[in-house]
Amino acid sequence: MTALFDALETRLSTLPPRALNLPGLVLRESAVLVPLFEREGVTHILFTRRPAHLRNHANQFSFPGGRRDPEDVTPLHTALRETEEELGIHRSRVRVLGMLDEVPTTTSFRIQPFVGVIPGDGQYRPSAEEVEFILEVPLRGLLEPSLYRTEKRTAQGIEYDVDFYTYNTHVVWGATARILRSLLALASEVGPQNWR
């Protein structure tokens, strides 16, 4: 296990995640797992691309996750259940490092992101209904400043910044990119000595 995972776990344990405070807005609960893994000594992050037929966020890169079901005791249960459903990774094989701040979406969801370590063996059983493509990216590669940009967008009369990361031909944007930016800031904070 890399020193980065240990350092992230320690840092996340000292940072209580900030819940959204958006008076007047009713947002549906959802949760995602931000999956990290080590392969051949290199830390990677995993994204899934959603199929074109889905109603929300079709063709977009995302982290495994989704809406909180009534039987999900906590948002963490949601993130682990969805990871199991989407990628075939049993929850017992995920080392949960901690939580990042909640993130809102323009589709009226509030996302609770959990950072977790998954096996690095690449043995996925993706759900054809929910996953069209799996993208594995070396985490260090995403720190290159030229990969990141923001654009102004307007929703419901409010202008806001949208984050974008372009890795090769793949574009990660929106709430997923916002979560990624938060993780990268935290990983940079815990120090390059922990990176591989």
TrEMBL record:
Cofactors, names only: Mg(2+); Mn(2+)
Source domain of life: Bacteria
InterPro entries with a match to the protein in the record: CoAse, NUDIX_hydrolase-like_dom_sf, NUDIX_hydrolase_dom
One Pfam family it belongs to: NUDIX
Nudix hydrolase domain ranges (all copies): 27-161
PROSITE patterns: NUDIX
Gene3D superfamilies attached to this UniProt entry: Nucleoside Triphosphate Pyrophosphohydrolase
Keywords: Hydrolase, Magnesium, Manganese, Metal-binding
The keyword Metal-binding is assigned to this record: yes
MF terms in GO: coenzyme A diphosphatase activity; metal ion binding
PANTHER family recorded: MITOCHONDRIAL COENZYME A DIPHOSPHATASE NUDT8 (PTHR12992:SF11), NUDIX HYDROLASE (PTHR12992)
UniProt xrefs under NCBIfam families: PRK10707.1
Name of the featured protein: NUDIX domain-containing protein
Gene source species: Stigmatella aurantiaca
Species lineage: Bacteria, Pseudomonadati, Myxococcota, Myxococcia, Myxococcales
